[in-house]
From TrEMBL:
Keywords: Signal. GO terms for biological process: carbohydrate metabolic process. This is Glycosyl hydrolase 36 catalytic domain-containing protein. SUPFAM superfamilies: Six-hairpin glycosidases.
Length: 436
């Protein structure tokens, strides 16, 4: 009997060693493929060239947007003057409003005119005018994250101690968090709130003022805003000068992460619900909104550490299935299925499979790739990156979004797409170098 047990134990060990050897060899083969893929060099070169031209979001957007800049700042630091990047971050702080809120972006006064009634001015920077799509709740968190990325790459933590009028930049970032807690927060759920939009989008479904809060707005919490908050609070913890601040930000981070999973995660369906409404839904009771899967918010939840490895694996499988069912080109698909046109009477941007209602965005698809690499799914990341790389090379540039037939739409030379794809490639190649 003992001999049989020993024999079985030996066979088990041998099998395990063989499995480990095969796994290691597969990783080596994949690493070799990644490192020798010249297409990745082509896309990286295009991204670096584009991001060396400045900070506006794209040819269709002459403004500098913080939610965009936050996604390409890492590559910008490699190819652009660092003092300019530092000053760009501080410009957002100088345009901060007395209540602590951060603008979406800015332009030089007189450079661009548009009909937005929400123009923002500051006596601390009289050369620029700010603007804000108030349906969003990611401007403050994007700025904090951008500061974090800048500091991690440059080691220039002195930017936090730069005096902006009578307060340091760090104090003003704290004011930005306080703004969210005072004006964009549900005391009941202890989560950030915003308007009802499609996933991470900036177009409210009710129409009305479209990108601005108005009487039609239905307030809600969603995973994108709160995952962004968790990531920003991680940065605030690292920025903290004293134990009291570190404790405050840590407790808020943990509370937000816990409640995001508690109230927004559907355990039975293993997905995040689209919205948790504060005071009523904009949709008819006959519409089951929870059938809709938000790809972008799920990607940011991965980055925020809100999902286990098993949950990430399931999420990726679900997103790939959504791509197959929808006919979309890549996992950059914003959501699936799209909101039916007959229940969202807003602007033309709300049409099915158009723009944020089922368009395909590398700006978020690239972030899915990043998180697959970060969480041990390098093969899946490389495979799912292929159609994004192919179309950048085919079209010769980066675009804002793509239709179901893979045709480019929106702004060309879209820096957000360039930034996230460049970072995804860097992460894949770093993995490959460690596994070759």
């Amino acid at each position: 009997m003992m001999k049989n047990v020993s024999r079985l134990a030996c066979l088990f060990v041998i099998t395990m060693l063989q499995t480990i050897t095969l796994y290691a060899q597969a990783n080596k083969d994949l690493a070799k493929t990644i490192l020798s893929d010249a297409r990745l060099d082509t896309v990286m070169a295009k991204a670096r060239a584009l991001l060396g031209k400045g900070f506006n979001a794209g040819d269709g957007y002459p403004q500098v947007w913080i939610r965009d800049f936050n996604t390409f700042i890492e590559t910008s630091i490699e190819v652009y003057n660092r003092d300019s990047i530092r000053n760009n971050l501080l410009t957002f702080v100088k345009l901060q409003q007395p209540n602590g809120e951060i603008v979406d972006g800015y332009v030089l006064k007189g450079h661009v005119t548009w009909g937005d009634p929400n123009k923002y001015y500051s006596p601390l920077d009289t050369t620029r005018v700010g603007f804000k799509n108030t349906v969003e709740t990611d401007q403050e968190t994007s700025l904090v994250q951008a500061f974090g990325k800048y500091i991690r790459i440059t080691n220039d933590s002195s930017i936090l101690h730069e005096m902006i009028d009578d307060k340091t930049a760090l104090e003003r970032l704290g004011m930005a968090i306080d703004f969210l807690l005072k004006h964009r927060y549900s005391d009941k759920f202890k989560l950030l709130t915003g308007a009802t939009t499609q996933d991470w989008g900036d177009v409210q479904v009710e129409g009305g003022a479209v990108v601005d809060i108005d009487s039609l707005t239905h307030w809600c919490s969603d995973v994108y805003d709160n995952a962004m908050f968790v990531i920003a609070l991680n940065d605030m913890i690292l920025f903290a000068n004293n134990p009291a601040d570190k404790k405050k930000w840590t407790e808020l981070r943990d509370l937000t992460a816990s409640n995001t999973k508690k109230y927004l995660w559907d355990k039975s369906m293993q997905k995040f619900i689209p919205h948790l409404y504060i005071n009523g839904s904009p949709f008819p009771s006959s519409f089951d909104e929870n059938k809709i899967y938000f790809h972008g918010g799920t990607a940011i939840a991965m980055e925020a550490g809100l999902l286990t490895k098993k949950e990430i694996e399931k999420a990726n499988a679900d997103m790939l299935n959504n791509v197959k069912l929808s006919g979309a080109p890549t996992v950059g698909l914003t959501l699936y299925p799209p909101y039916p046109q007959n229940i969202i009477p807003g602007s033309g941007a709300n049409k099915e499979y158009n723009y944020q209602n089922g368009g395909d965005w590398e700006w978020f698809g690239g972030r899915i790739i990043q998180q697959l690499v970060a969480n041990g799914f390098a093969k899946e990341a490389y495979d799912e990156l292929q159609p994004m790389v192919d179309r950048v090379i085919k079209n010769g540039r980066f675009y804002e979004w793509y239709s179901r037939d893979n045709k480019p739409n929106g702004s060309d030379n879209f820096k957000g797409s360039a930034g996230v794809l460049a970072k995804a490639i860097v992460m894949l190649r770093d993995w490959a170098k460690q596994n070759q």
